[in-house]
Amino acid sequence: MRSPRVLAAGLLLVAGITMVAACSSGGSTPAAPSGDAVLVEGQQVYSQNCAGCHGASGGGGYGRKLAGVVTVKYPNIDDQIALITNGKGAMPSFSKKLTSDQITAVTRYTREVLGTN
Ligand code: HEC
């Protein structure tokens, strides 16, 4: 029979791993309208590259809040695309990691889906 202490340690370990997993996945991102392929791609790019810092629904975390903010702060979408492409301060540059189509898709996702549903 196993000692209760070993069992307790095992349970703690499992709880710890579950918490770390929950944190790094950051919950699920708001769904893009299924009829818009670009926004669907944008959601995928966002959940894989941005949600970890900006939060699953763009509420912020390590990175700034994006939901409902970006359209006000960047009335011209090109300015926001440039920021994501080139990075700024602690915000990494995505010019090598994502194609310009992917950057446009994720930018549209942050403007048209996050903060609107
Ligand atoms: C390593 C964490 C990190 C990741 C990953 C990240 N960001 Fe950021 N982001 C930041 C930080 C920190 C800032 C604030 C930069 C500053 O102004 O100094 C920021 C700023 C921004 C801004 C400007 C916000 C404002 O108020 O001006 C946008 C837009 C943005 N990020 C979009 C994205 C997108 C889209 C992705 C995924 C492709 C992404 N970020 C990935 C950390 C991150």
Q: What are the distinct ligands in this entry?
A: heme C
The shape is elongated
**Secondary structure: helix percent:** 55-70%
Structural class determined from secondary elements = mainly alpha
GO molecular function, one term: heme binding
Pfam family, one: Cytochrome_CBB3
Keywords: Electron transport, Heme, Iron, Metal-binding, Transport
InterPro entries: Cyt_c-like_dom, Cyt_c-like_dom_sf, Cyt_C_IC, Cytochrome_c-type_DH
Word description of this protein:
This protein has 117 residues and is mainly alpha-helical. It has one domain (28-112): Orthogonal Bundle (Cytochrome Bc1 Complex, Chain D, domain 2). Helix content is 56%, strand content 0%. The chain contains 6 helices and no strands. Helix 5 packs across helix 6. The chain is elongated. The termini are far apart. The structure holds heme C (HEC). Heme C binds at residues 49-50, 52-54, 62-64, 66, 69-70, 73, 80, 83-84, 88-92, 94, 106, 110.
